[in-house]
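Researcher: We plan to redesign the surface later, but first we want a full-length starting point. Tokens attached.
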């Protein structure tokens, strides 16, 4: 059980002397402190019994609370930007004061924006902008005012452009990988699963329509290759021999992916959306993302980390290059409803915008001069 001290809502402050008595109850393991009184928080931390924890209940005071002994944060804002707030808490707890202060300054406008109206109205607005939920509220709460929506969109756009991400599913794995530089077997299996269901991507689409590379995802994929070794993987025909980290991916009827017999292979860690058609022989590598209702025609290669949008037609023989290294480099991105003609080659991190049409045999690299 966690005790919640929030005088602003209850009208009553939970004094340290009262909390001292509550600590005698075995089931009470922590206090969420939202009094805003740093002297009180420091006193609670100073007299804290073994096995009990103090958590900040105020995003804006998390850094200050940790500096006087709190262990972490129960956050409103982290529902929208979990990785950014985890990084802030980690920096504060490990003594990286300058890093923590820089993160705090960058996040303060967002924290303030969350309380321009009654909570959770601005929070719901932020989650809707990030595609994580709707903004419907139960009465007596109502949707945010236009000014609040405009403020939230502006604040979030600034954070997105500075590198914040909103992918909740990847939060724990990213922290583990950045800390350890590797995954154990169970973590690796989860990483591949999240790649395959689209909850982790090599790139994220920002609010302004641009793309941001998640370098840690590419580094994690590379770690699978660097682990070395060879393993035999059983397949409907003869066995294959490949890196132990990357078995061929198996599909079921419920996946809604049509794979025509004749030599097609999809490596584990590739996302293939419902409605995709894959003609033989084709190959889709690890880290690739192929969105709904896309056609992958015969002899097509979708390289490692390449990103293919919705309703794209990759004609026979098209080669979509993979860009796995360096990790910070953009992969090839083909946006929605693009037609890629037969025997085309798209390489070196090229971005093909929505509804573009590429004639057969076109080769585009970083060195290609394009006239609009």
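Model: Full-length starting sequence:
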């Amino acid at each position: 059980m966690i005790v919640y001290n929030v005088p602003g809502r209850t009208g009553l402050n939970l004094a340290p002397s009262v909390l001292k008595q509550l600590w005698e109850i075995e089931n009470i393991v922590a206090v969420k402190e939202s009094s805003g009184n740093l002297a009180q928080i420091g006193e609670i931390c100073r007299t804290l019994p073994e096995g009990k924890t103090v958590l900040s209940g105020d995003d804006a005071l998390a850094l200050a609370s940790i500096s006087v002994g709190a262990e972490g944060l129960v956050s409103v804002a982290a529902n929208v930007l979990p990785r950014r707030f985890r990084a802030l808490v980690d920096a504060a707890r490990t003594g990286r004061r300058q890093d923590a202060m820089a993160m705090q300054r960058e996040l303060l406008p967002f924290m303030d924006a969350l309380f321009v109206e009654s909570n959770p109205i601005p929070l719901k607005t932020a989650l809707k902008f990030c595609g994580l939920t709707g903004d419907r509220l139960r009465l007596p709460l109502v949707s945010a005012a236009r000014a609040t929506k405009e403020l939230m969109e502006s604040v979030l756009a600034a954070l997105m452009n500075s590198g914040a991400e909103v992918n909740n599913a990847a939060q724990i794995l990213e922290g583990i990988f950045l800390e350890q530089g590797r995954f154990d077997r169970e973590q690796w299996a989860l990483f591949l699963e999240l790649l395959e269901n689209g909850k982790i991507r090599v790139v994220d689409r920002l609010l302004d329509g641009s793309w941001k590379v998640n370098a840690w995802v590419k580094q994690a994929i590379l770690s699978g290759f660097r682990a070395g070794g060879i393993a035999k993987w059983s397949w409907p025909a003869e066995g294959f021999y490949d890196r132990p980290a990357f078995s061929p991916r198996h599909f079921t009827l419920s996946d809604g992916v049509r794979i025509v017999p004749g030599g097609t292979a999809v490596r584990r860690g590739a996302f293939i959306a419902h409605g995709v058609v894959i003609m033989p022989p084709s190959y889709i590598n690890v880290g690739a993302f192929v969105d709904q209702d896309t056609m992958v025609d015969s002899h097509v290669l979708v390289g490692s980390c390449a990103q293919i949008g919705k309703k794209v037609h990759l004609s026979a023989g098209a080669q979509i290059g993979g860009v796995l290294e360096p990790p910070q480099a953009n992969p090839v991105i083909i946006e929605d409803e693009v037609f890629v003609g037969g025997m085309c080659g798209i390489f070196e991190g090229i971005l093909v915008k929505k509804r573009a049409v590429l004639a057969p045999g076109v080769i585009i690299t970083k060195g290609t001069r394009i006239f609009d």
